[in-house]
Design goal:
Strand content: 35-45%
Helix content: 10-25%
Length: 295
């Protein structure tokens, strides 16, 4: 009986001590719930080592980064799922994908906003809606000519100018929307399989920003280039652009790549018998990235 009383007393003492110690313990905060944002995107390209893609959600009008990722030369994302605070992610109204420099000096999104979409429930369909207002009505024309050259016969098909001269006077040959900040148009001629730039531009009614390969004579006030001097390695100028390809791309600015970016709204095969004004084709659906994000 004595042992039983002593055991009961010890149990009461232990319970009392445990209760006192529990009162002294600090409160343990609740762990926030976490959710994943998953990207299902097609058509992105490798940005090289100087840039990364970065996702953003818009919450109460403010951008919140979801994380950065790269894309391989086969189009595979280095990371497609990102863990975030569930309440914050649930409050997001939009998703935005930008192209950011490495290292990135700014805490907010860059001007190069490539994809955007509004959340409807737990998903958002994204498109290039921030690059320009619309690409619904675009068109392009060009001629093969070398106005900056000497007039020699071998130069005749060695230049491309994005203009329409069917009336006898040079006129605008490109119908393109004004681009948002962070983007520029760039013309290209594919010569023996190599894409060679004709220069970047933001307006279709003036000269582009380069005349790297043109001759000494004046050029028309429209985007274009004569390929007469300073030929890149592996090419010989003058050349013959027939049987090649004419391209208008949209490039992020700044741009670290000597090749056309994935956005190529206008493309035209140069006929073997090209004479006079040639038309370009709408290539938006064939080159613009798209996809969806889910939470």
């Amino acid at each position: 009986m004595k042992n039983l009383v002593m055991f009961a007393g010890a149990c009461l003492l232990l319970a009392s001590c445990s209760s006192d110690n529990a009162d002294d313990l600090p409160d343990i905060p609740d762990v926030p719930a976490v959710s994943d944002l998953t990207l299902n995107l097609d058509g992105l390209e490798d940005l090289g080592s100087d840039f990364l893609y970065e996702g953003w959600i818009i919450v109460d009008g403010a951008p919140i980064s979801t994380g950065t990722f790269s894309v391989s030369d086969t189009g595979e994302l280095s990371q497609s799922s990102f863990s975030m605070d569930a309440a914050t992610l649930d409050s997001a109204t939009n998703f935005v994908l930008t192209i950011e420099p490495v290292p990135d000096p700014a805490p907010g999104p860059a001007d190069t906003k490539l994809l955007i979409g509004d959340f409807s429930g737990n998903s958002a369909t994204v498109s290039t809606g921030t690059v320009a207002e619309s690409f619904a009505n675009i068109a392009g024309e060009y001629i093969l000519a070398t106005p900056t050259g000497t007039g020699a016969a071998e130069e005749e098909f060695s230049g491309i100018w994005f203009l329409d001269n069917s009336s006898g006077s040079p006129m605008v040959g490109l119908e393109l929307p004004t681009l948002s900040d962070g983007w520029k148009y760039e013309g290209w001629a594919v010569i023996d399989g190599a894409a060679v730039t004709t220069g970047t531009f933001t307006s279709v009614t003036g000269e582009d920003d380069a005349a790297t390969f043109s001759g000494a004579n004046p050029s028309p006030p429209f985007p274009g280039e004569d390929f007469l001097v300073n030929a890149p390695d592996g090419l010989t100028f003058p050349t013959d652009l027939r049987n090649g390809v004419a391209v208008i791309s949209i490039e992020p600015y700044p741009d670290n790549s000597p090749a056309p970016f994935t956005l190529k709204p206008l493309v035209g095969m140069v006929p073997a018998d090209a004479m006079g004004v040639q038309a370009m084709n709408d290539n938006v659906s064939g080159s613009f990235p798209s996809g969806s994000v889910s939470r």
